[in-house]
Amino acid sequence: MELSECLLDYFKSTNYTYEIIFIDDFSKDNSWEVVSELKRNHTTIIKGIKLTKNHGQHIATCVGFIKASGKFIITIDDDLEVSPKQIQLLINEQNSSNSQIVYGNYFNTERSLTRKLFKLIYQTMAKIIEGSNSVKGSSFRLINARLAKKIAAEATHLIFIDEVFLWYTNAIAYVDVKHNKSKRPKSNYSLFSLVRLTGDVVLYSSLFPLKMIKYFGFFFSFINFGIAFFYLARKVIHGVAVPGYTSIIVSVLFSSGLIIFILGVLGEYLSKMFQLMNNRPLYSIEEEI
Question: What is the pLDDT of residue 199?
Answer without folding.
Answer: 65
